[in-house]
Specification:
With about 290 residues, the chain is of the alpha/beta class. Helices cover about 40% and strands about 15% of the residues. It contains ten helices and eleven strands. The chain has helices at about 10-30, 45-60, 75-90, 105-115, 125-135, 140-155, 175-180, 200-205, 255-260, 275-290; strands at about 5, 35-40, 65-70, 95, 160-165, 190, 210, 230, 235-240, 245-250, 260-265. It has a six-stranded parallel β-sheet with strand order 1-11-8-7-5-6. The protein has a three-stranded parallel β-sheet with strand order 3-2-4, with helices on both faces. Strands 9-10 form a two-stranded antiparallel ribbon. The chain is globular.
Length: about 290
Amino acid sequence: MSSPVIINGKEVAQSIREGLVKEIAALKEQGITPGLAVVLVGTDPASQVYVGSKVKACEELGIYSQKWELPTETTQEELVELIHRLNADVRIHGILVQSPPPKHIDEEAVILNIDPRKDVDGFHPINVAKLVLEDEEGFVPCTPQGCMELLKAYNIETAGKHAVVIGRSMIVGKPMANLLVSKKANATVTIAHSRTKDLPALCRTADIIVAAVGRPEMVTADYVKEGAVVLDVGINRIPDETRPRGYRIVGDVNYESVKEKCAAITPVPGGVGPMTIALLMANTVKACRQLTR
């Protein structure tokens, strides 16, 4: 079989950002600047990195941003009060509370308090319903939305294809399945998870595999039929003393063994990851357009 197509998420994300620069410039000509508020509770190092990269992306694109870094002991009531202030702030069109918050914070209750029109993560039940109903005014979680953009950018056909989504989270698995089964994509979708019997055999029936399970390099060549397309959503740190930081980043797919059988595959890093922030920026601009029309 010929070499697989390596799906370059950095290039596709850059293309999306270039389109957003023009859109933001057009909004600014009307006196409107899109605004995003990012809220972080606690000092989780990975979350701090993610928040920093989101604020940096705003700066690069000309989006107004507010970064709220709250101490770990912030109460549920204090966090909800801040969200209500941001809901009322006309400079802010998108609100994101970095996940996961400290254990004493009820994340679902926090999401319920975000104005669904500013819920650029797409986690509010109203936006979940809009995704299922295929209402394009709603917001779709950024990572599965990014996966769909990658398929589109590489002209990978989804209509009539069998897609297996490994993972059933509200952040990736379930919205991914809804996007693939939608009238736009027309795939036939199976959602697999930890209780699925003989997962490798099921995955071997798939034309498209989306791995979003959070287990390092779980998907091996045994899971993949010849000519399948594999999207790896996983970002896992595994110890590696040969690296300066003492770890390396791998996906949920054993890339070296799987790529030999694929028609196309996303690497980790550099595949799905860059798309997530690009789509967050796109959702913020969309929220701005909808709130100011």
